[in-house]
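Here is one chain, start to finish.
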Amino acid sequence: MADESPRVLFIEDDVGKRYVIARQLRAVNFDIVEAATGSEGLAMLTPEFDIVILDMRLPDMYGWEVCRQIKENPQTASVLVLELSATLATPHDRARGLEMGADAYLVHPVELVELIATLRALYRLRRAERERERHRELFLGTVGHDLRNPLQTIVTATQLLGVSESLGPTERKVVATIERTADRMRRLIDQLLTFTQGVAGGVPVHRETVALGDLCRTAIHEQAAHEIVLDDQLGVPISVDPERIGQVIDNLVTNAVRYGTGPVTVKLSRDGNFAEIAVHNGGPPIPREKLATLFDPYRRATSSRGGIGLGLYIVEQIARAHGGTVHVTSTAAHGTTFTVRIPML
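Its structure:
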């Protein structure tokens, strides 16, 4: 560990205290970034940080609120939080901090040797978690890559069978079923690889000028058995990665068909400098308590119908990679609408 520099965000409004502690920690090889308020610290925090040292009484909010926002954000939830307070120092305060998401809690003034030991213990936990993530990502990426070759063999063989004049109607139905299943497998592999890229640091995009309406028509065509209405009010091409945005539309339309009732509407429009893709379906709303974790790949949005998991995480990651966002509204009266906003470049 002597050659490593744990990256620490130190959020403390007392300039003197922050200076002394930061100076001491830098002397023992901690990479310290300083912030004076909760909002400033949250704006500076990225997944590259290992630990946040968090004062509990900040000018704009309590440390409990900062910790809550850190832990509820999927991008920063794995960053470890050490809460440090001179005033909220009772056993009840410490217990509350830990129960609300902190990974450790110390009372100031704290001996430097104890602070350093606590930070190093947290860093060991952070390194171990990153190593587990690395192995998981490597496994998923390897599996996704290695599945492509045998799948391509199936696709090629099926295509050759499809043009054979010796097949009867029954055999052609079987070939068509194999083709649909192989296409479904291809999509699952693409989802797996995109997920791996997302958790590894971001989905790469390769922009082209395309018409979103054409991408939507392709997704709608593949759901031909269901009533889907395209309302294209955008009218102009935009610069996006067509393969990635195709995944977004396909995932949202597939979810709307699978979990909704009645017709599905795909609306394309413009709001200022943003293009919007809104996919709406009727049916029971997503439970309120599930909305906060809807885009978490390790949670499921519903319990009775298999849930919405990996696909929505991928939708959010692709939107982020384009500098955009995804938002959902879901009520019994108006159904469910997922809206993706992408900057017009």
